[in-house]
Structures are given as C-alpha cells and as structure tokens.
Amino acid sequence: MIRQAEFTEQIVASGLDDWVNELWVVRILQQSGVVEPRMLRPLTIALIAQVVALNWMTPGRLVGSGEFAAWDLPLNESILRVSAEWRPEWPAEALQPGQIVWLANTATGDEIARKVIEDGLTD
Q1: How many CB atoms lie under 10 A from the CB of residue 48?
Q2: What distance in Å separates the CA atoms of residue 118 and residue 98, rounded to the nearest whole number?
C-alpha cells in the first residue's frame, strides 16, 4: 500500500504544471487501490488538509477566465469549507472537477514538486 507521504507528494507534483481539484486527488487514491467509495471522501479531504497544512498548496476556486483565487480563510476554516461543500451523500463520481475546491502550489510546494519529480517518485 502507498504511504500517505507518497499521496501528498503525488498531489503536489501534479500541481507543478496545473491547478489540482478534488477529483484529481480521488483519482490518485483510486489508482493506488482505494476503491471503497465510502472511503474516498474522507481520505480526499484528509489529503487536501495535509497539503494545505504543510503549506505546499493553497485552496481556492477559479474565477473569471480561469484565474485562480485563493480562499481568504484560515486552514481550519478552509478544511471545514471543503467538508461542508462535499456533502457526505455525494459520491465522488457525482462531482464536477473543481466543484468543491481547486488547489494551487505555493512556492514551497513547487520546490517539493520539483524534488519529487527529480527523484522519480511519481508516475
């Protein structure tokens, strides 16, 4: 089984080229073998919380012509927002990309992502 650090590294490495949404995190989990639908929501939210807490990524949304706008919320409120907007009864496959959250790498996240890619830790 893949370690949690490897999940977060894959997420931040994905964010080097583009913004990442909740369904991208779901996809990483599914590719690692997490197929139990009821586990996808809590694991996805936990991973989003981790990359944000590590200051590797910033949560936000896309506005206007596809510009990223960071949420002006403290960490705990950002995670509460993700949890509240992704209702427990909604399966992952019912979501649209970015319906809940978009994540953008921070400068620290970009550094980590480059190291992860350089070390060949992603697919």
Answers
A1: 26
A2: 28
21, 65 in Cβ contact below 8 A? no
CB atoms within 10 A of CB 107: 9
Token pair recorded at residue 28:
């990483």
What is the full DSSP assignment across 3-32? -HHHHHHHHHHHTTTS-EEHHHHHHHHHHT
For residue 29, what are its two tokens? 């989990």
**Do the Cβ atoms of 22 and 91 come closer than 8 Å?**
no
Joined together, the tokens standing for residue 96 give 């649209």
In this structure, what token pair is assigned to residue 68? Answer: 């990223």
pLDDT in tens, 28-79: 999 988 778 888 999 999 999 999 999 999 999 999 888 999 999 999 999 9
Q: What is the DSSP letter of 78?
A: H
Q: Say what the pTM is.
A: 0.91
